[in-house]
Each structure stands twice: as C-alpha cells, then as structure tokens.
Amino acid sequence: MQPYTLKITVPTPGTPVQLSSDISLRAVRLSFQPAQKAVSAPASFGKISVATPGTPVRVTTDTTIRAARMRFAVLIGEAGRTFLGVSGMNKTTGAGVLKEFWPTGAGGAIADQYTLEAPAGSNTLRPSDYWVDANTANEGLMAGYWKKQGSVYVGTSTMNKSTGAGVMREFSPDAFGDGVANLLELGSADGGNRLQLSQYYVDADTTSDGVLVTYWVQ
What topology is assigned to 40-148 in CATH? Predict the structure, then answer.
C-alpha cells in the first residue's frame, strides 16, 4: 500500500474544512492526528495599577477569560509592597491575600513573582477572580496568562463542534502527545479503496490549528 500525508488547517473556527474536493480520491485506510502540540498561547493584562492603596483593583472584569497559567510580578524600580488576593482581600489583616510581594526598589533587584497553575494544565483559572492592592499609590503588578490551545475535530459534512452533531472525534489539547490515544484510525471492511476523503471534514477551536491526515491507497 502507498501512504500519502495531508495537513489540513482551519482558517476560520466553526467553518469545517473538507479533506479533499476530489470525490474520486479513495483510500483503504485513514489516520488522523492533531497537527499542533499541547502548547499555550501567552497574553498580558499589562500593569494592574492601584490608584488608592487599600482599595484593591480587579485584574480584569471580563469573566469569560480562562487560563491554564497566570503569572504576577512586581515592576522594577517600584518601592512599596504589593499584594495579590481574591475578592474582599484586606492587605492589613491578610484576609483573602494569596501573596505579598517585596519591591525591587531603585536598585533593580530580581523581581518577586508568583505563578498559578491550573490542575492538569487545563483552562480553569479565571483571571477575574484575582485582585491587586499596594502600599504605594499607582504601583501594582504585571499580570500575564497562558491559555491552552483548543480542541480539533474530525467529522462529516454536517459536523457542528458546538453541538457535537456530525463529530466523529474531538482531539482535546489535554490529550496531545498521548500516542495511540491521540489517533483516529479508519479502515475499509473489505480491504479495498472504499473510504472517500471528500466525506470527511476538520474543524478547530483555534485559528490555523488542524490535523495531519495519512491515507493509504491499495
């Protein structure tokens, strides 16, 4: 059997991409696996500045953002202590405080930092749950986060990744790199070239993600 490989990427999530428009292209066996790795995309909220010490500032008001990792760090040159906590935090009593940061001062020492990691690297941290306070007005913390890439889907022409209709397999980012568990294998029952590539489609949660498709022709 002769193997061939295709890389199918999705330019617009939610608009499935056909493996091939050639209805005559048939194979005896098909193998699908995600083309991307289980990597995380970084983003930043920039500096979370506290105008009035004692009045905590929310990292973000967007409650829809989810992250796999969050990192907070003091700014080089700032002189007062800063604090990270949850809603209702009180830097004086320590209630709701997760971390007190020591300043670098004018000398520019190594910045104190704090990292939060979600279980199994999943996108379950919600940045809007965290607040920043400071002892000095207009000082604060740099806040960044990493969001794990989304799932990739293989299905039929009617597939809808949101409802699951027509989806044959969802490749979750948590499963990437898991070898055999990361494959979808299809084969014809009689060993002939019965699998029509034009009948299969690919969708993804993230722009330009997709699958590697290997097919064998008898």
Answer: Jelly Rolls (2.60.120)
